[in-house]
Design goal:
Blueprint: H1 2-28, H2 38-64, H3 72-100, H4 105-129
Helix pairs in contact: 1-2, 1-4, 2-3, 3-4
């Protein structure tokens, strides 16, 4: 239970980085609310996801999973593989929601992030990336 709780705390922190970067980029790009250019919304969202992923890996391997130094590169390679799937799912979900619904892009980003985190990230990180 301790690992799961820590993982959720780190996920919230990484999601905060992800959302903050994405929303700042969207603001700078002039997409303040509502629907915007789907490609631009997707790019800004993907950039946020990249920043959140880096944050998540760095904290998870030491604080959540106590991964040690020996398998650092192996874990980074596995994390990168899982992260590519994470990026594709986040970008794809955001694109679909911003393109085919009237959902505000901010809500679409949060919905997509939560679904991917719950259904994909924790399970693969525990059982594949940082397995002992």
């Amino acid at each position: 239970m301790r690992t799961f709780t820590r993982a959720q705390i780190v996920s919230l922190l990484a999601s905060g980085v992800d959302l903050t970067v994405a929303f700042i980029l969207l603001r700078w790009a002039g997409v303040a609310s509502g629907q915007g250019n789907s490609a631009l919304v997707t790019f800004c969202g993907a950039t946020g996801t990249l920043c959140g992923g880096v944050t998540h890996f760095m904290i998870s391997r030491t604080w959540v999973f106590s991964a040690g130094e020996k398998k650092w590169m192996e874990q980074l390679n596995r994390y990168a593989l899982v992260w590519v799937g994470n990026l594709a799912l986040n970008a794809g979900g955001l694109y679909l929601l911003s393109r085919y619904t009237n959902m505000d892009h901010r809500i679409a980003k949060v919905v997509t992030s939560v679904v991917v985190a719950v259904c994909y990230n924790y399970i693969l990180q525990k059982r594949y990336v940082f397995k002992h």
